[in-house]
Amino acid sequence: MKRLVVAFVAGLSLLVLSCQRKDALEGFKEPIKSLKGSWKIIKLLRNGEDMTSRVDFSKFRIVFTDSTFETQDKAPFIVDSVGQWRFDDPQYPVSLFFKERGADTELEPKFKYLIVGGVRSMILDFSPGCVKNTYQYTLVPASDLAK
Fold first, then answer.
1. Residue 146: band (very low, low, confident or very high) from pLDDT cuts 50, 70, 90
2. What are the boundaries of each domain within the chain?
3. Is 16 left (phi over 0), alpha (psi -120 to 50) or beta?
């Protein structure tokens, strides 16, 4: 009988605790993601081959505000001037869109937004016209490079 009471109390405790956990998550709202700031290219793959050491990216930056971007210095990148950017969903972004000033269409690279080792990064995959050549850029905030 004593074992039955202990089992009942343990089961009731688990039930109560599981309900409390659900209640604690009900008010949670995923934060809006931001690219705001200056980003630097740290890795370039072309058709899967690492090309990072073959291109000087030391001066290249892409600077994002809440809705605009501007590139600094030239590099073989998806955009090379100024324009607008946006996410498909600011809380759960799956797609990133670029529209250069004066352009009629938006560019949509494949996009991943990651946090690895406490450092934000984004990976952009695109083909600049020839579908046989694909480029994958890994960028991190320029301020995170000092860490």
1. very low
2. 37-146
3. alpha
DSSP 31: P
What residue has token string 């498909």?
88
CA distances from 74 to 16, 56, 57, 115, 134 (A): 60, 10, 9, 27, 19
- Sequence-separated (6 or more) residues with CB below 8 Å from residue 105: 99
Query: pLDDT digits over 99-130, tens only?
Result: 999 999 999 999 999 887 888 899 999 987 77
Question: Model's pTM, two decimal places?
Answer: 0.76
Fold of 37-146: Lipocalin (2.40.128)
The two structure tokens encoding residue 121: 């990064």
Three-state SS at 10: helix
